[in-house]
Amino acid sequence: MTKLTIVAFDGTRFEIDADNGSTVMENAVRNSVPGIDAECGGACACATCHVYVDEEWTEKVGAPAPMEEDMLDFAFDVRPTSRLSCQIKMKADFDGLIVNIPERQA
User: Fold this and answer.
1) d(CA 72, CA 30)
2) Of 98, 106, 103, 105, which is closest to residue 14 (Cα–Cα)?
3) For residues 51 and 82, is the Cβ–Cβ distance under 8 A?
4) Gyration radius (Cα) of the chain, Å
5) Which residues have CB under 8 Å from 11's CB, separation 6+?
6) Is pTM beyond 0.85 here?
7) Of 21, 42, 81, 90, which one is least surrounded by beta carbons within 10 A?
8) Domain coordinates of the chain in residue numbers?
9) CATH entry 3.10.20.30 includes domain 2-100
């Protein structure tokens, strides 16, 4: 299990034991984290699972792929650390990963 922290817009922290190979979005939905709508179910066809990767993790998590970048155009308040949580697959190297949820989803 890999530790994942999802911080809701109101500051509530959700500490999750994530299975490697699962996505941040899947873990958010499975743990009823508010603010992750995931309308497309993880198909990278919407921007309703938008998160901000903690700055300490952005390099390790990496940049979005071109298709994800296109979807981020529809997200609310996109920042340099923006990612779609359906596109971040958990792995041992991500133990301790922190992501923050924006005020609202697009």
Assistant:
1) 23
2) 98
3) yes
4) 12
5) none
6) yes
7) 21
8) 2-100
9) yes
Contact criterion met (CB below 8 Å) for 105 and 35: yes
Place of tokens 């890999």: 2
Give the DSSP per-residue string, 44-62. SSSSTTEEEE-TTTHHHH-
Query: How far apart are alpha carbons 3 and 16 in whole angstroms?
Result: 6
Q: How many helices (H) and strands (E) does the chain have?
A: 3, 5
Tens-digit pLDDT string for the chain (106 aa): 899 999 999 999 999 999 999 999 999 999 999 999 999 999 999 999 999 999 999 999 999 999 999 999 999 999 999 999 999 999 999 999 999 999 999 8
List the structure tokens of 53. Answer: 């990767």
